[in-house]
Amino acid sequence: MKMKETLHLGKTAFPMKANLPVRELEWQKDWEEKDIYAKRQEKNADKPTFVLHDGPPYANGAVHMGHALNKISKDIIVRSKSMSGFRSPFVPGWDTHGLPIEQALTNTGVNRKAMSLADFRKLCEDYAWKQIDGQRTVFKRLGIAGDWENPYVTLLPKYEEAEIRVFGKMAEKGYIYKGLKPIYWSPSSESSLAEAEIEYKDVKSASIYVAFQVKDGKGLLDNDTAMVIWTTTPWTLPANLGISANADFEYVVVSADGRKFVVAKELLGTVKEAIGWESVEILQELKGSELEYMKVQHPFYDRESLVMVGEHVTLEAGTGLVHTAPGHGEDDYLVSKKYGLEVLSPVDNKGCYTAEAPGFEGVFYDKANKMITELLAEKGALLKLDFFVHSYPHDWRTKKPVIYRATPQWFASIDKFRQDILDEIENVEWLHPSGKVRLFNMIRDRGDWVISRQRVWGVPLPIFYAENGEPVITPETIDHAATLIGEFGSNVWFEREAKDLLPEGFTHPGSPNGEFTKEMDIMDVWFDSGSSHEAVLRAREDLTFPADMYLEGSDQYRGWFNSSITTSVAINGVAPYKTVLSQGFVLDGEGRKMSKSLGNTVLPEKVVKNMGADIVRLWVSSVDYESDVRISDDILKQVSETYRKIRNTMRFLIGNTEDFQPKEHTVAYADLRSVDQYMMARLDQVVETCVTAYKEYEFSTIYQTIMNFCTVDLSAFYLDFAKDVVYIEKEDNLERRAMQTVFYEVLVKLAKLLTPIIPHTTEEIWSFLKEEEQYAQLAELPESSVREDQAEILGQWEKFMDIRDAALKALEVARNEKTIGKSFEAHLSLFVDEDTKALFASLDANLEQLFIVSQLDIKDLAAAPAEAMPFENLAILVEHAHGETCERCRAIKEEVGTIEDATSLCGRCADIVRSEYPEALVQEEA
């Protein structure tokens, strides 16, 4: 028998190489066959419920890293809750209606106008399902657990039915109305937009000062005087019907370069400089209220514009006189409505002028800017043309500019229940307080919600029109339409005539002949997803309302968080969520947004194929997702290195507990050595920190805590000197079994703690453990054990670790000076004070073993020689150990070579081999 065979070298079938891209698929197949998700739900059936309601991603395009961050974060929470005493089902969802799918089909060559609406909508539905299948495959590959065979999808008939009923309840409460008012309009989408669909980008715009000649100055102003306005949207001038002043401001009539003009007194200096007037003289002063009801001549049309007063006029910029086009601005609309002016909006759906703008018919609004400024110059009304860069609203899908345009639209009146929403915001737990402020301010300041869209792929507005044009929205018609849509899907609205969508025998005073038409607009897609609390939370028996949590990107304060609380408060009086958690965006390694043009996109599918899902999941746990997060190949390599360290640590523990049977070999805590008790106390701290972090959704704390525990406490300390025990001592030696007790405890608890984050890896680890649960996912998160002496033990060993750090520095210097090679070649002399001696005595530990040296002396600090390395209350001398190297344990001992029957061994190894492996000594003699 060879001497090497007398060692208990840890051997295990647990592979060093993870091979995650292959092994994960095997585990996922096994989980699906065994239906582990259902087993977990069954196990938790009688426990309190925690429902994280999935905000639906849009069913179009590849899954990107933002999706991965979001879905994996949700999965970590759901898995941790499921392992913490909660029934936590997860129903994934998809948002499927809206413009992007229409555009995607158009881009593939589908001619919408060459087919019926119903046929085009069927193509949209087929496209959406293909996208869902593609995204679902990637989400499942990322290890997301959930009810994937029964997701909620906004195009499903029962979902659409629930949405129609939400609309009906809001209509019944008087919240729904039709109006002609300016709204955000996207010419590129040919549709109205909600505020949530707007993003801002810098653009270069014209800045012009225009003179409006006074036509009726009410005896205060002569007709040779002109009022000066400033605008950055020359294209809206064909729609000008008035000028607005502020009743409280002081205005002046000035003589400037041979003409007379009216501007706000406080802005005269700014206007003079901007226009370039050289000589200016104030001729007259008057109050803004005196300008009211004066009339001015439109600069290029044969009509008058009314002078009005309004509080929206400020002195921040311009002239104090505001060009007012009620069809192209909210403030303009409101002030004009007060004065009884009609709404004029001479721009069509594509952004081109209609016949109501003579001279510009068919011209795209943006191209008309130059034509209008040239016409103003020709008429002598253009006082100054300049250009400047400023922030301007854009369609967040097409990325093209939007305009304010008055069109007939359906609205939800936020004013009628705004305070109710604000009150409910106070009742929600906002894990990011800034998010609460953000949503509160949005709701406080927002206008009414435009819920109609001039598209075809969506849920129809269930509205009929009588012969006299009166809208018909009654509980009876809503209920009937909802029932039909729930049975046949929303396509039924586009396939049938209005009379076939109404209840049998329905009559209305506005239709004496029994004729009706139907609304062809669809609902805003935010109304779709914003109705999920009714269509999903209330509709599914395994879910609860309100949800315990909504978790999405920070852009959803203007989106799903917003629309959901709006519809829920409108019909239920309460928020649909108890807690809201938001995340930042995923950027590249340099902090730039990802884009195909930059070539910096990182696709989760590619990372999973090359590195494995658990690497992506571990990355999610490593980032501070409250802010924007970064990802790159280098960052993923760093995460992969952390994964390797954790895996190798667990592999070492598995390999060195192969001969350990927990029920037979576990050593009671009281019988453990002090160092083992210390490691148990550190493990308890790790458990406490991680379990708390799961409760507080601080995944990066878990990542850092476990990584540090594996590298600092285990690899660099406990497991480092453990080899001298678990490899060397007799199989049933108490010290060896004590360490194995700690090893196994660490294995089980770390596997459980890591399961919500890297479930594929922990299931592989679990298969090597001797636990009752067949799967780690069916276990519970560990509990920490706070023992009476824990604080004392931790305090003692923290002091020891400080001394050890000093010793490691001294050993490193000795190694660099070639005094020693490995630390086992060292003879360590510690010169210490009385307190340190007492500390060493209290630890009752094998200090040579802990410092991983062959020989160690403890001496008085006063006896430290000059060559000893000084530290605080400590000096250390490192010399080469005396003696020969033991063939078995590799320690240098003076007795090696002196033991008659074991000349190559130290005393300890000779005793062990003599007792357990005498045949090895026979071979040595031979």
What is this entry, summarized?
By secondary structure, the protein is of the alpha/beta class. It is 40% helix and 18% strand.
Structure overview:
There is one protein chain. By secondary structure, this protein is of the alpha/beta class. The protein is built from 30 helices and 33 strands. The strands form nine sheets. Strands 6, 7, 8, 9, 10, 11, 12, 13, 14 and 15 form a ten-stranded mixed β-sheet that branches. α22 (674-695) runs antiparallel to α23 and α22 (674-695) packs across α26. The model has no long low-confidence stretch (mean pLDDT 92).
Task: Describe the SSE topology.
Blueprint: H1 20-34, H2 36-43, E1 52-53, H3 65-82, E2 93-94, H4 99-107, H5 117-141, E3 152-153, H6 157-172, E4 176-186, E5 191-193, E6 198-216, E7 225-231, E8 242-245, E9 250-256, E10 259-264, H7 268-275, E11 280-287, H8 288-291, E12 295-297, E13 304-309, E14 322-324, H9 330-338, H10 365-378, E15 382-395, E16 403-412, H11 418-427, E17 429-430, H12 433-445, E18 449-450, E19 452-453, E20 464-465, E21 471-472, H13 475-488, H14 491-495, E22 517-518, E23 522-523, H15 525-529, H16 532-537, E24 547-553, H17 560-572, E25 577-583, E26 586-587, H18 604-610, H19 613-622, E27 629-630, H20 633-655, H21 662-665, H22 674-695, H23 699-726, H24 734-754, H25 759-766, H26 790-816, E28 826-832, H27 834-843, H28 847-851, E29 855-860, E30 869-871, E31 874-880, E32 884-885, E33 892-893, H29 907-916, H30 918-925
Parallel strand pairs: 1-24, 2-3, 7-10, 8-13, 17-25, 24-25, 26-27, 28-29
Antiparallel strand pairs: 4-5, 4-16, 6-7, 6-12, 6-15, 8-14, 9-10, 9-11, 12-13, 16-18, 19-23, 20-21, 20-22, 28-31, 30-31, 32-33
Helix pairs in contact: 1-25, 3-19, 6-13, 11-12, 11-17, 18-19, 19-20, 19-23, 20-23, 22-23, 22-24, 22-26, 23-24, 24-25, 26-27, 29-30
